[in-house]
Amino acid sequence: MEFFKKLRAHRQVKPIYGAGVLPKQRPASLFRYRNAENLQFLRPILLDHSVYAAPIGKGDVFNDPCECFYDIDLSWDEASARAGIRYMKSLPPGIRPQVRKGIEAVGEIKPHELEFFERFWKENDENAILAIMRAGHNTFSPNMRNALEESQRILDQATVGICSLSALGQSPYMSWSYAGNHRGVCLEFSTGYLPFSNAGPVIYSENPPTVKLMGNPFQSQINRMMTKGRAWEHEEEWRVFSHPDTGLSIPFPPPALKSLTFCPFFLNQDDGEQKKKTILDWLRERKVQHPLGVYEFEINRKRYEFSRKPITL
Predict the structure, then answer these.
(1) Residue ranges of the domains in the chain?
(2) How many angstroms separate the CA atoms of 174 and 180, rounded?
(3) Which residues of 229-261 are buried (b: 16+ CB within 10 A; e: fewer)?
(4) Residue 36 contacts residue 185 (beta carbons within 8 Å)
(5) 156, 132, 125, 165: which is closest to 45 by C-alpha?
(6) 221: burial class by Cβ within 10 Å (0-12, 13-18, 19+)?
(7) pLDDT tier at 19 (50, 70, 90 boundaries)?
(8) Would the N or C end of the chain have less CB density within 10 A of its end CB?
(9) Mind listing the pLDDT tens digit for each residue in 182-201?
(10) Are 145 and 74 in contact (CB under 8 A)?
(11) Which pTM value belongs to this model?
């Protein structure tokens, strides 16, 4: 019951983005590779039944420096503009100073453009805001367009967290890249349970998406959050989203965690034996009510992927 209360809190803020994916198109399992440098990052997954969603644009959280970039389309129609206005007005007032700071940081913003931004926030009447938009949006300078893109990125940072998973469950590349050079673990989640049943596939493209500034706010956010460069398509990434105003930890029901697999060089790290013992102790503690498979990867000399060998707790 507590799980569903927490999940409802997340869903009340925004829809979960992968809901449009047909179940038959979604893998039965999705995988999250994690290093084992600090076991306190694994403990919430194994014992508290929650996964962490990283806010975008915070330092070097993402290995792709082009993450969540996009081009902006200033065209709009009245219906989508009204939806966008309501979304902007629903955001916490504390976000507004961050947005203004980001706009000003771009530099050389013309006074009438900054006034447009100020009046948009202060005016409460939708018709009045539409009149401001009709009068000003076609005269935006390139700097102002850059500033609007930056402001949207700041909003994304304040309202979205991303939990990345992969459709690849026995991948040497993913183990090397995301599990501490094969010294971590691979966690398997069933897409038969929320929130993984609503995971959405990343779209890989040559160019960042073009999104409407005043289009459907949720669809625009999906396009920004779900597009990456083709250089990353070998990762077969799927994403689940969280929202900082309800917490960056996404709860899941215990049966959703299907297995944990130790990567092949797990023991080739400082305190590897002790870390493995700690994890196995956690799994034994968990197993009483929520059994899961425990494995270790073995190098497969017949295929360019790992094999899984069962471990008995």
Answers:
(1) 2-66+161-310, 71-159
(2) 10
(3) eeeeeebbbbbbbbbeebbbbbbbbbebbbbbb
(4) yes
(5) 165
(6) buried
(7) very low
(8) N
(9) 999 999 999 999 889 888 89
(10) yes
(11) 0.78
Asked if residues 296 and 261 have their Cβ atoms less than 8 Å apart, the reply is yes
For the stretch 83-126, pLDDT in tens is 777 777 776 676 767 676 766 666 666 666 666 666 666 667 77
- C-alpha span between 280 and 277 (Å, rounded): 5
DSSP letters, the chain, are -HHHHHHHHHHTTS--GGGGS-GGGS-SEEEEEE--S-GGGTHIIIII-EEE-EETTSTTSSS-TTTT--EEE----HHHHHHHHHHHHHS-TTHHHHHHHHHHHH----HHHHHHHHHHHH---HHHHHHHHHHHGGG--HHHHHHHHHHHHHHHHHH-EEEEEES-SS-HHHHHHHTTTTTSEEEEEETTSTTGGG-EEPEEESSPPEEETTS-HHHHHHHHHTEEEGGGGGG-EEEEEEBGGGBSEEE--GGGEEEEEE-TTTTSSTTHHHHHHHHHHHHHHHHTTS--EEEEEEE-SSSSSEEEEE---
Q: Considering Cα of 9, then 40, then 238, then 212, what sign does the dihedral take?
A: positive
Token pair recorded at residue 131:
């009149």
Give the total residue count for the chain: 313
Asked if 221 contacts 241 with a C-beta cutoff of 8 angstroms, the reply is: no
